[in-house]
Design goal:
Rossmann fold, binds shikimate-3-phosphate, alpha/beta, five-stranded parallel β-sheet
Length: 174
């Protein structure tokens, strides 16, 4: 049973959609950021400010290495997981990569609802920062063949679209 791995930028809905998707598929759900927070006993912004981004990325890669071999999981990843080719290679071994996308303005609106949670967007011009990061990450996110734009549709519909696109791949043996 393959995993379903959700990639994509902050604010594209990976966690909420991932949870619902797991219910539909009767899979378990795991989220890389939550695992890191659980294990370190620290929130992501705290890790960034106290230890720096590079340290966070190493925790992230360790976490990916550990969970990539699970089966029957929906795995929601932090927005930067896709930047490391080794992370993707590991997740791809027994996972279907699905990238969630959204327009920069929509991302900004969503992340502002929970301000202070995204250290990388602490910027005087967060919209510009989002656009810059998106263009830097485009190639990495494109590694996922399946893409769903969550900008203008409710969560339920995003889940349905993912289910439809993965339906032929999900039962494949790995
Ligand atoms: C990050 C995304 C965040 C979190 C960290 C870095 C990124 O996760 O891992 O703040 O580099 O895009 P979400 O995508 O769940 O917000």
């Amino acid at each position: 049973m393959k995993n379903v791995v959700l990639l994509g930028f902050m604010g594209t809905g990976k966690s909420i959609i991932g949870r619902r998707l797991a219910v539909e598929l009767q899979y378990r759900f795991i989220d890389t950021d939550h695992l890191i927070e659980e294990r370190t006993g620290k929130k992501i912004p705290e890790i960034f400010s106290e230890e720096g981004e590079a340290y966070f990325r190493s925790l992230e890669s360790e976490t990916v290495a550990e969970i990539a071999s699970l089966r029957g999981y929906v795995i929601s990843t932090g927005g930067g997981v896709a930047l490391n080719a080794l992370n993707l290679e590991r997740l791809e071994k027994q996972g279907i990569l699905v990238c969630l996308i959204a327009r920069p303005e929509v991302i900004l609106r969503r992340v502002q609802r929970r301000s202070g949670q995204r250290p990388l967007l602490k910027d005087s011009d967060p919209l510009k920062k989002i656009k810059t990061l998106l263009s830097e990450r485009e190639v990495a996110y494109n590694r996922a063949r399946i893409k769903v734009d969550t900008s203008d549709i409710p969560i339920k519909k995003s889940v349905q679209r993912i289910l439809k696109q993965i339906s032929t791949l999900i039962g494949e043996q790995v």
